[in-house]
Amino acid sequence: MGVAINGAIEQGLLFAFLALGVYFTFRILNFPDMTADGSFALGGALAAKLIIGGWNPVTATLAAMVVGAAAGAFTGLLTTKGKINGLLAGILTMNALYSINLRIMEKANLPLLREDTFYTMIQSLHIPGIGVISGEAIIFLVIVLLVKLIMDWFLHTDLGLDIRATGDNSKMIRSFGANTDRTTIIGLALSNAMIAMSGAFIAQYQGFADVGMGIGMIVIGLASVIVGEVLFGSRSIFRASLAVIGGSIVYRLVIAVALRAGFNPSDLKIITALIVIIALTLPNVAKGIWKKSSKAAKGGKLDA
């Protein structure tokens, strides 16, 4: 069981980059970006191709982030300059990236089992773990927290505040002279850079990149965001981004428990849907019960 928990924590930390990227667009920028499914696979495909070609895993991962940012910027250009609906622009980019990923990989699957990857690099360091948490998970946690802190800092800069204002009220911030087209493009680029980084790390972690590895990633990212917000709260940027990381780990732990309980891997989609449904409805149900109980208590006091 300890191995399963550690594996779930490691995966949760690697998928946390995806969750942070989804949080950036859906919560900060208030943009329904569907590019994530394509940019996640793009990051994995490019990183795998470059590693097989002899690139250093760290450099390959950084390159994956750059092309992921380009994919997000393209979606931003479609919606701001091309005046295409944001949801449709993301879907169009996602579909185009499927063919691009096949071009990059030149086949549907690229194995990395005999290659030096970022995961094998940190394994070779033999960092001691803490309990069921491996040394590799500790390294992943440090990297995730570093990215989280950089994102928190950026969102408090002038440009970051413009992006947040664009998500809150684009018409108002435009009236103050801010270029909302620019903030939208930059926001989508940064988001998809993080998502592509997640794809690159996951490909190296699992030992292969697959053209279909990005299918459903937007739902997984949203599930992590929603679960994190429900469990840990989201009153500030610092707390919300930390909650997203926690939500990603909790989501992976729930999936691990479900698989240990006997569910088939093919059931993961419905399990994800149920997790999101429960996370969305439970707070409302609890709030309704609390209101009814408080009304009943007040009524009882009046009768007395």
UniProtKB/TrEMBL annotation:
MF-aspect GO terms: transmembrane transporter activity
InterPro entries: ABC_transp_permease
Membrane-related topology note: Multi-pass membrane protein
UniProt KW keywords: Cell membrane, Membrane, Transmembrane, Transmembrane helix
Keyword Cell membrane (UniProt): yes
GO cellular component terms attached to this protein's record: plasma membrane
Pfam families: BPD_transp_2 (PF02653)
Cellular localisation: Cell membrane
Chief location of this protein within or outside the cell: membrane
Keyword Transmembrane helix part of the UniProt annotation: yes
Transmembrane spans: 12-30, 50-74, 86-105, 125-147, 184-205, 211-233, 240-262, 268-286
PANTHER family attached to this UniProt entry: ABC TRANSPORTER PERMEASE PROTEIN YPHD-RELATED-RELATED, BRANCHED-CHAIN AMINO ACID TRANSPORT SYSTEM, PERMEASE PROTEIN
Protein name: ABC transport system permease protein
Source species of the chain: Brevibacillus fulvus
Taxonomic placement: Bacteria, Bacillati, Bacillota, Bacilli, Bacillales
